[in-house]
Specification:
heterodimer, A: 313 residues, Leucine-rich Repeat Variant, 2 domains, 18 helices, elongated, B: 647 residues, 45 strands, 26% helix
């Protein structure tokens, strides 16, 4: 009986030691491959891609090892890890979700990034959970990842992030509402055309172009008289890009009833909306009263649309 | 009644308002005008300090400029104005201000010495009062102020930590030509060792206070210049000859202890007007003239101050070790050469190198040649490295981290005031990360930090006159890497800038680069990431104010922003030519990285200009990018450089 007990104990110890040894050997293998995969030397560039493939083939077992490395100070190592996670795909997601609770905010923000690249909707709830993280970089990456996954379960969290105090987070939210086609965001996006941070401002214009064009044009009509110069200029730009009859009509009416910069913005938008001048706006515009620089802008815009047309021919 | 008063006040203020508008610099007008056209504003070019964890080595001026990168233009204008001829101490003082750290509220001074601390140690050997004043002043600094100031600077460091500075830390700046032949494992192992060094350094580096030793160096320059000028005036007046000064000495008794006599101590040498030869590790040399040869060495294990004063002659200065020829290593090293066509043949950490200290080489006149390897010709690491050449047609030749180079808490600068000069940096250490046949330069107005551990410093070249040529390869010419600043200001002359990649107003990875050329018909040539480019939350700016200039590049250049960076090319006047190979990412291009894009601005404000690329003469354009564009307009009637030439 006593011998049996000793034998059993010995077997358990051998098994544990063997397991630890196997784990250690596996980690060594991963570490060794990772050195090559993240090497930046020119002469080893041919080895990088196959080594990344080899690591990705090791599957979910390497995820914890790589997450531990995610706080690396090397940009090359960081990108390599994200790339490997992306190649592993959904198998990596369960452990990555667990890692969103990591106390190291740097790791959490990079895990968000990886999840966004994998685009696995099973991570949405966990990502929503970190959209109010104290570290803005985590909020930025989490909101961005939700946009990449584009599951409308996250609409409220993303809309809420449009009001974040940090410009980068607002930008991430703006991009995400565009990707998620959240129509409820239109009025806020128009407001963000005047955002102090160009990332949010310009991305808002792009996001609006992804949403229902009639609704956006209708919403923009009243905003062209905004006191914010960017709302006026980008509003006109968006209408010019939409270029539906309704949008062009708004621009035309505004052109006729405006002066100064708004007249110039509507002119440029009209030229863009009607590049072949089917409605004859160009003659109307070049005969309007503009200063020399505004007129040069108008002539440049006409020349640019003509060049683009010629290059198509 | 009240309304009348208001109208009267407004009427009185109107001329001032108009005058303010007229005072707006052309580049400011251009920036306002183009950003408005692109639905941007100047303050959009701004970078947060917390994209990554801020470190404790960040310089205040760089932190401020990252917040408002377009202020680089004013920064450079002030920098060039800081120079006053024949007063090297003034520019050193100005540069010292820029070495304030972002989190620093108080700056420690040098050790203050009473002259009695010296007088009680020495007997006078020479009888001339002017000479004795100079020697006394030098002795005060060499024997008391420099050693006690470096003690203050490194007071919080252990013995091992002090040793680390001249060993492991130095290794971070030393490259080897045979690195290209190493295996991937060996290379990785070297990288890991370097990483360990960096982490070890970062753990204690913040305990270093470079200010006392640099302040000591600056004070010594100011005070020594007064004494040297008095001596030179005396000699010039011919009241007394240098021979007489040197011969009028006290009688020394047999077996006298020479170390007790001022000017005769060990490590001190005073030479006459003949051709003299100096060899060894000196503390002080004063040479009255002749074509002299200096073979100098320095032992960083036994740091000390070095003051070399050569009043005239065509001299040859040679390094036998690193840390010579106006090199301050854990101390202050000064070299003053007042006349002659001189040759400076150095190893590394030389010719105006401040390495945990201050180094200055001040050459007043003559056609000079400067050669060396790494961290030379105006290079600073936890220190101030300054090379001032006031006149002559000079040649600068270096391999790496040189010619206006600033590393962590360092500022390195060349001020070349007159003469057609040529600058070459590179050709020795291969850029094994990117190319088989290109070499790292990391020089010519280059700031460098250790990403992401420690912010870098400021590297600058200020060249005031002459047709100058700048040649380099990878990373150079008003460029920087990681929370640093690289500057070239060239005032006049038809200059030629040639660099392969990352240069000519280029910032890569949260950093700043600015090249301003005021006058002359200049040529800018390079391959990529050139001529006003900012990559990864960085800003690169190239501003050429006058002249008929030619710009050539392949890609990601001429007003290009990449990975949320901002790149600006501004040319105020002249009939210019712009050539690029890849229209997709040049001449007003913003790369879309991280969804929100970058900013690329191309501005030409006058002249009949020729383009191969996105631009056209008299034209506004927006590129299909996020976000970029350009304009070529007429705002200025006459090119003032032409007016100047017509005279």
């Amino acid at each position: 009986m006593r011998n049996k007990f000793l034998l059993l104990t010995l077997l358990i110890i051998i098994s544990i030691v063997g397991n630890i040894s196997a784990q250690s050997s596996f980690k060594k293998q991963v570490d060794s491959l990772f050195v090559i995969a993240s090497s930046g030397e020119l002469k080893y560039r041919d080895l990088i891609k196959p080594t990344i493939e080899e690591l990705a083939e090791l599957g979910k077992d390497i995820v914890p090892i790589l997450v531990d490395k995610l706080d690396t100070k090397s940009a090359r190592e960081r990108l390599t890890i994200i790339n490997i996670f992306k190649k592993i795909g959904s198998d990596a997601v369960p452990y990555l979700i667990t890692s969103l609770k990591n106390p190291n905010g740097l790791i959490v923000q990079r895990v968000c990034w990886a999840i966004g690249d994998i685009k696995d909707s099973s991570a949405v709830d966990a990502l929503i959970g970190v959209t109010s993280h104290t570290r803005w970089q985590v909020r930025d990456q989490a909101v961005g990842a939700l946009g990449d996954i584009a599951d409308n379960k996250a609409d409220d969290a993303v809309l809420c992030a449009l009001h974040d105090s940090i410009g980068q987070v607002r930008k991430a939210a703006v991009v995400s509402v565009g990707k998620m086609r959240i129509i409820e965001s239109v009025s806020q996006l128009i407001h963000l055309l005047g955002d102090d941070f160009y990332g949010a401002r310009m991305s808002a214009a792009e996001a609006l172009l992804k949403l229902d064009s009639n609704y956006v044009a209708e919403s923009l009509a009243d905003s062209l008289k905004s006191t914010n110069t960017f709302v006026r200029s980008l509003g006109c730009f968006i209408l010019g890009e939409i270029a539906t009859d309704y949008a062009v009509d708004i621009l035309h009416r505004t052109f006729l009833n405006s002066t100064g910069d708004l007249k110039l913005h509507t002119s440029l938008a009209l030229i863009n909306a009607d590049p072949n001048d089917l409605c004859g706006y160009q003659n109307l515009i070049v005969n309007a009263d503009f200063d020399k620089f505004s007129m040069l802008k108008i002539k440049s815009a006409i020349s640019a649309v003509q060049d683009a047309d010629n290059s198509l021919k | 009644m009240n309304m009348k008063i208001i109208i009267a006040i407004l009427f009185c203020l109107a001329p001032f308002s108009i005058s303010a508008q007229e005072d707006e610099k052309p580049e400011q007008f251009g920036l306002n005008h183009l950003t408005e056209y692109l639905s941007l504003k100047q303050s959009d070019i701004s970078f947060r300090s917390d994209y990554t964890e801020p470190d404790l080595f960040r310089l205040k001026v760089i932190a401020d400029l990252m917040n408002q990168p377009l202020e680089m233009i004013s920064y450079v204008d002030n920098l060039k104005s800081s120079f006053v001829k024949k007063q090297p101490g003034l520019v050193a003082s100005y540069l010292f201000q820029d070495l304030q750290k972002a989190n620093q509220t108080y700056r420690e001074k040098a050790y203050f010495a009473d002259i009695s601390e010296i007088q009680r140690n020495y007997n006078l050997y020479y009888t001339d009062i002017t000479l004795n004043q100079l020697l006394t002043r030098a002795a005060v600094y060499l024997d008391v102020v420099f050693p006690r100031s470096i003690d203050k600077s490194l007071a919080l460091l252990s013995k091992d930590e002090k040793k680390f500075l001249t060993n492991q830390f130095k290794e971070l700046l030393v490259q080897r030509v045979d690195d290209e032949f190493l295996s991937v494992e060996a290379m990785d192992s070297l990288d890991k060792i370097e990483e360990v060094y960096i982490e070890e350094f970062v753990a204690f580096g913040n305990k270093i206070d470079k200010d006392p030793i640099i302040d000591a160096g600056i004070s010594s320059v100011k005070e020594l210049m007064l004494e040297i000028n008095s001596l030179r005036q005396l000699l010039k007046s011919k009241v007394i000859s240098s021979e007489k000064i040197l011969n009028d000495a006290v009688y020394l008794p047999k077996n006298a202890n020479l170390d007790a006599y001022l000017g005769r101590q060990s490590g001190w040498k005073i030479g006459g007007t003949g051709n003299d030869y100096y060899s060894g590790d000196y503390k002080f040399i004063l040479d009255f003239g002749g074509d002299d040869v200096y073979d100098l060495s320095y032992d960083p294990e036994n740091p000390h101050g070095v003051i070399i004063i050569d009043l005239s002659g065509n001299d040859t200065y040679r390094s036998q070790t690193d840390f010579t020829l106006g090199s301050g290593c854990l101390s202050v090293g000064l070299l003053f050469d007042f006349e002659g066509n001189d040759r400076y043949d150095a190893k590394s950490f030389s010719i105006g190198s401040g390495f945990f200290g201050m180094g200055m080489l001040y050459d007043v006149s003559g056609d000079d040649r400067y050669d060396g390897d790494t961290h030379i010709q105006g290079a600073g690491s936890f220190g101030l490295g300054l090379l001032i050449d006031e006149d002559g047609r000079d040649m600068y030749n270096a391999a790496l981290y040189s010619q206006g180079f600033g590393f962590i808490e360092g500022l390195g600068s060349i001020f070349d005031i007159k003469g057609a000069d040529s600058y070459y940096a590179g050709g020795k250490y291969k850029d094994i990360l990117r190319y088989d046949e290109h070499y790292l330069s990391l020089s010519q107005g280059f700031g460098y930090g250790l990403r992401p551990y420690a912010s870098g410093g400021i590297g600058a070249i200020v060249d005031m006159q002459g047709n100058d040529s700048y040649y380099s390869d990878i990373f150079a010419q008003a460029a920087s890497y990681w929370w640093s600043l690289g500057v070239i200001y060239d005032s006049s002359g038809n200059d030629s800038y040639n660099c392969f990649q990352y240069g000519q107003g280029c910032g890569t990875h949260m950093t700043l680069g600015v090249l301003i050329d005021d006058y002359g018909n200049d040529v800018y040539f390079g391959k990529g990431l050139m001529q006003g480019v900012g990559h990864d939350y960085s800003c690169g700016l190239l501003l050429d104010r006058h002249g008929n200039d030619t710009y050539t590049a392949y890609d990601l250049s001429q007003g290009a922003g990449s990975a949320n960076g901002a790149g600006l090319l501004i040319d105020n006047e002249g009939d210019d030519r712009y050539f690029i190979k890849n229209k997709k990412n040049t001449q007003g291009y913003g790369n879309p990285r991280r969804d929100f894009g970058s900013i690329g601005l191309f501005i030409d404000l006058s002249g009949t200009d020729q383009y191969y690329g996105n631009g056209k003469d008299n034209f506004y354009w927006k590129t299909k990018s996020k976000w970029g564009g350009g304009m070529d307009i007429e705002t200025i009637k006459k090119d003032s450089s032409e007016v100047k030439n017509e005279k």
